Amino acid sequence: RSPRGVQLWSGDRSISITMDTALPSYIVAMLVGAFLVGAKGDSMTAVVVNPTITETYGAKCLDGTPPAYLARRGSGANASRFIIFLEGGGWCFGLADCTRRRGGGLGSSNSSKYAPGSSSPSKGGVMAFDPTENPDFHTYSMVFAHYCCGSSFSSNRTDPVKTSRGDMWFRGRPNLDAILADLRASWGLASATEVILTGGSAGGLATFYNVDYVAGVVRATTPNARVTGFPDAGFFADLPNVEGQYAYRGYFQEADSLWNTTASDGTNTRCLAANPGSTSWKCLMAEYLTDFIETPMYVMNSVMDVYQVQNILDVGCVVKPCNTSQLAAIEQYRVDYIKNTVAHLAARATAVGHGGFFVSCLVHEENVDYCSGGNPHALNCAGWTTTQVAGLTPQAAYSAWYRGTSSMNLTVDTTKAVFPDAHPNPTCPWKLPPASNVFDA
Predict the structure, then answer these.
(1) In 3D, which of 21, 23, 22, 28 has the Cα closest to residue 115?
(2) Which of 114, 407, 412, 434 has a 20 to 30 Å separation from 356 between CA atoms?
């Protein structure tokens, strides 16, 4: 199946052109894990990866604890259909940054969330158990892979780095390997018929890094399995900041010396083969990876992603008042994102079968809601069933792409959204008054 066009939508107009006393708690969790495997129902069960598998792959969080995940077995025939969500949570780019992260929730599995017998509620969106919210996938087997490496599941250093707080391990790709092996051993991934690899933010970027790799791992046991990617809010742009500098790429260039991602093939190998040596950093940036990914993906992102305008553009506002020049910078970012970043996806859409849904909203992550704090108008994790572009919500657009019922698999909202004379998309989760220079949070 290949998309038959690209839909650009602005207001009520659409244009079609051809072109998402005790043992540590983690040890106890491993010992009781056998009793938890196979859980169904309205929650996800905490699982720490089997010790033998952990040792086989040398899998470790930053602090040396084993990788962990949450899982819920699907129902009936959908038990063999998997959604594997890679948790997000930013990155650590330097030694001091990673040292601070090492003992926290994003650097360790030694937390109450992964304690023995613990369970977690629905993550919402495409991971929801509610058929109203998630009509297509609510009975699929669901996995929420804990993020504890700081590198979007890509790092791979053999030896630890010595720090003032003890050894620090960079084992992101081995952690993913171990989770996949545990799922094969205990949750039926070895006979999967469908696998959707998804994730949000840093987990969305991890989907770009790993989707072809995971497709190979899955098809090693089930050659005919359908494997697709669904990165959300992970399509980070390589665009300049307000000073005209490409500072954001520099963070990843610096981090790679610590993560050892490109040297260890922790990202797309076709990209790495095409970008040896000094250009290998491009294979840490989603827009360049898209030129090489062969697994069909549905990319979901805002063209004025609130994280990106604050951290890549470095505009210096959004949750506080923006002046006229800052508003102009955000508008230019939106235009450049469509022209440059989305163009990478569009160029390969027909050949590979990619699709995408791009809103003009100040939002970050749309395909889950667990990070919204329960606020449907949040800047993060909002809009799955409410934001609309050309009459489609993210849920409906993704469903149509996945089921092959859409004639326009790449939908881009071109609504001008930040100037006082704009008419922003009224369905955006977070409202921007059209006649105001203040983003009223």
Answers:
(1) 28
(2) 434
In contact, 382 and 394? CB cutoff 8 Å: no
pLDDT of residue 438: 36
**How does residue 205 score in pLDDT terms, banded at 50, 70 and 90?**
very high
Percent over 90 (pLDDT), the chain: 76
**Which residue's entry shows tokens 């072809």?**
212
pTM score, whole prediction: 0.90
pLDDT at 4 over 60: no
